[in-house]
């Protein structure tokens, strides 16, 4: 499950290390801001974890459940692109192999057809009006796309340099607040399309 790939110890350490950063970000930007994403990198023993959280609007252009074929195509395309970790970020060192990944786009996927039909079975005469109303309602909500990658590395301590590529695929994305923690160091950096690399130092 997304956000459960990191161990409790790592999550606790990362939370302590970035409390001040998160407080500043929350005060300046709010809990959910279009164009602003978060990338977390954590190392433990021989494993490397990357977790990416981004507002759906910054990826597919909306935050409600997809209501048209065109919107559904955009969601599926984003899911397929993010299933390749190299589209998010690359690193050359460590001799690492991807062993698990999860791309959660459920926030913008349509509800189960059966559940949808059941929920509207008393409103068939107003189908179009209800769809328009629901779209307006969903457009005022916030949703996120969540991505998790887990790597097994022969030399995880050698992983130091990351290049982030996701800006080129999602033009609405403006900044990524990046945080990392290893058994020896921790840090943070704000990335943009013009400065999209960082080092674990």
Question: How would you characterize the largest beta sheet?
Answer: 6 strands, mixed
Note the run of SSEs as H and E: HHEEHHHEEHHEEEEE
Integer count of domains: 1
Strand content: 25-35%
Number of helices: 7
Helix fraction by DSSP (H/I, runs of at least 4) = 25-40%
Radius of gyration computed on alpha carbons:
19 Å
Q: Which strands sit side by side, in order, in the main sheet? A: 4-5-2-1-7-8
Report how far apart the termini are: 29 Å
The structure class reads alpha+beta
Set out the fold topology:
Elements (H helix, E strand, L loop, with lengths): L7 H10 L1 H11 L6 E9 L2 E9 H5 L8 H14 L2 H4 E2 L5 E9 L8 H7 L7 H13 L4 E10 L7 E4 L10 E7 L4 E6 L5 E3 L2
Parallel strand pairs: 1-7
Antiparallel strand pairs: 1-2, 2-5, 3-6, 4-5, 6-9, 7-8
Summarize the structure.
The chain has seven helices and nine strands, in the order H-H-E-E-H-H-H-E-E-H-H-E-E-E-E-E. With 201 residues, the protein is of the alpha+beta class. The strands form two sheets. It has a six-stranded mixed beta sheet. A three-stranded antiparallel beta sheet has the order 3-6-9.
């Amino acid at each position: 499950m997304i956000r459960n790939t990191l161990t409790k110890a790592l999550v606790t350490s990362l939370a302590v290390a970035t409390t001040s950063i998160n407080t500043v970000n929350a005060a300046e930007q709010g809990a959910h801001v279009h164009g602003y994403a978060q990338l977390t990198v954590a190392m433990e023993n021989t494993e490397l974890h990357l977790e990416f959280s981004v507002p759906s609007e910054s990826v597919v252009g909306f935050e409600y459940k997809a209501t048209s074929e065109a919107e559904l195509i955009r969601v599926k395309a984003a899911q397929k692109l993010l299933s390749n970790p190299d589209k998010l970020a690359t690193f050359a060192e460590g001799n690492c192999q991807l062993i698990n990944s999860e791309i959660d786009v459920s926030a913008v996927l349509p509800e189960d057809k059966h559940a949808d039909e059941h929920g509207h079975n008393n409103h068939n005469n107003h189908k179009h009006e209800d769809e328009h109303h629901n779209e307006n309602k969903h457009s005022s909500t916030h949703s996120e796309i969540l991505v998790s990658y887990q790597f097994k590395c022969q030399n995880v301590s050698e992983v130091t340099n990351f290049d982030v590529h996701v800006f080129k695929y999602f033009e609405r994305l403006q900044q990524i607040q990046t945080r990392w923690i290893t058994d020896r160091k921790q840090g943070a950096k704000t990335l943009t399309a013009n400065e999209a690399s960082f080092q674990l130092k």
